[in-house]
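Input/output pair, single chain:
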Amino acid sequence: MNKSLAVLFLIAAGALSVGAQVPSWNKQAAAAYLDARQDWWQHWPKAQRDHDTTCVSCHTVLPYALARPALRAAQGERSVSNEERTMLASVVKRVRMWKEVDPFYPDQTSGLPKTSESRGVESVMNALILATRDASDGVLSDDARLAFSNMWALQFQTGTLKGAWAWLTFGNEPWEANESGYFGASLAAVAVGTAPGGYASSPEIQKQLSLLRDYLGSRVDSERLFNRIMVLWASSKVPNLLTSAQRQSIVDAVLAKQQGDGGWSTASLASWKRLDSTSLDTASDGYATGLIALALQSSGISREDPHVGKALSWLVKHQDPKTGMWAASSLNKERDPASDPAKFMSDAATAYAVLALTAEKKISGK
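Output:
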């Protein structure tokens, strides 16, 4: 082989090596799916709220708000999509009109204590959504500061929930059930750590942040694995949220649940039981695999690690080529796959798959 051919061979081999490290998936299709689902939600009658606003759901709106900026950056888009702009406008409107808008589920129509539960949920999600929006600019907006002010005002100062928030309990797993309050508190920590401009170090929030740290850290060892994965992710955002031993314990428990194909099943993350007594889907799914791959990378485990690498490969292989989504199924009942509510878990799965696949290789902040 002459010198020129040898050089060409080495360049080609190098290109193949680099390419093998970069997962290939359809970002444009994922964005199209998420935008379409957001558009549907914005027009769904059951999602409509007062003052021409919409409910912020844990399954469709919040994951969308977290993932769409990551997709925009990955694709080099210069502006937000129309669907994202509409979603953000509704959130900002409700933040600014916090004392005027009705809760998502008022006591008068949904029963006690749904007003306080709705306010707690919305305050945390509003803060997280606006912090995520502002993160790309590096400056925390006045609207985001107002959202955090609304959130901290509703944090429990005493009692068994000291440091946490009231959370919706409709018996809907995994986000609106009896054990979902820890999930919500973890989201609050993610919001604080995501906020730009050193917000987590602000003197005026240290008392509240200390309460949140105590709540999450003191309960983590007894929480179900799903909640522990959430706080593992949160611990990458807020310093001293967990000890090194606590983080390692969660990582060990998670890796023990990884399936042979490289993915995880949401069914394996707690002792779930469907309300209609049908069997849970135990195959690897996009939600568990995306969330866990994100949490592991956020905790400092490189995507070159075999466990993470297999998880990312699973995600690349299981994006639906027609719709651009990743699939996951309901933990609560067997649903008609053609129905829009049946897509709720897949909405979340797609968003977290995107977050895992676009995650930076090394994320600091422990």
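Confidence is low (pLDDT under 50) at residues 1-20, 362-366. The domain at 25-45+53-357 is CATH 1.50.10.20 (Glycosyltransferase).
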